[in-house]
Amino acid sequence: SAAVLAVLMSAARDDTHEVENEEDIPEWQQYSDEARDGMIELARIFKQGEQPDARKQFLAASKSCKKCHDKFRPDDSF
Prior knowledge:
Blueprint: H1 2-14, H2 25-48, H3 51-72
């Protein structure tokens, strides 16, 4: 569920254990915020019944997830 993912992104923003360098924390938080906001929008799209826009929004929101994984968890596939 998009709403659940939005909540998880809110929690992930403050759980910075994956961040090795303290100076990277703002970037981590930016990715978390972008993903959270994207999932909130996706939940809105589903609630409004705008199904044709759902796939486009999911792909847009998941870009933040991919960028974050590429930087902070490069050994994990996304």
